[in-house]
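Pilot study result, target chain (188 residues):
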Amino acid sequence: MRNATAVTLALCVCWVARRAESGDAAAENPFKKANVGDFVAYAVEADMGGMKMKGKVKQTVTAKDEKTATVAVETEMAGIPPQKNEVKVELDKPHDQVPPGAERKTIKEGDETIKVGGKEYKCHWTETETAMKVPNNMGTSLTRAKVWICQDVPLGGLVKMESTTDITMGETKMTQKMNMELADSGKK
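Predicted structure:
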């Protein structure tokens, strides 16, 4: 369960950020403009079925050529060994944040200036619902999320995310809540 939580957090960072100007997968891939060394780091608070955890997630561009960007994703959560994964992002394709087989719909959106870590960010926010089947057809999940995006933040612009996921597997139901806030970022 704990390793699954760490993987969930890492994937969440990759899937959640949406382009502020249009909010859809057809927008330009944000990693096209990234440079080696660009990074974002997030403070994370999660409640995974009653198990409350705090930690951090960091994404760093470690290599880039004309076709791909390599992104190191580091996850640290209390009580879980640190996780480090590498993700290859194809630059000639839209950076689609919706998992395969999922259906996402936008509930509402708007613009807002928010303060995170003592700094103000002019953001475009989007509230969404994403429904998908649990792998191996074992059940379903429904995620309600609100995401704040700022174009000044590298690697997709994610400043803040609040989400609640209801998972149903047979007779078992579980709710997972996760909040992420930008802790640090940098551009080369």
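One observation from the pilot: Residues 2-186 form a domain with the YmcC-like fold fold (CATH 2.40.360). A full batch analysis is planned for the follow-on phase.
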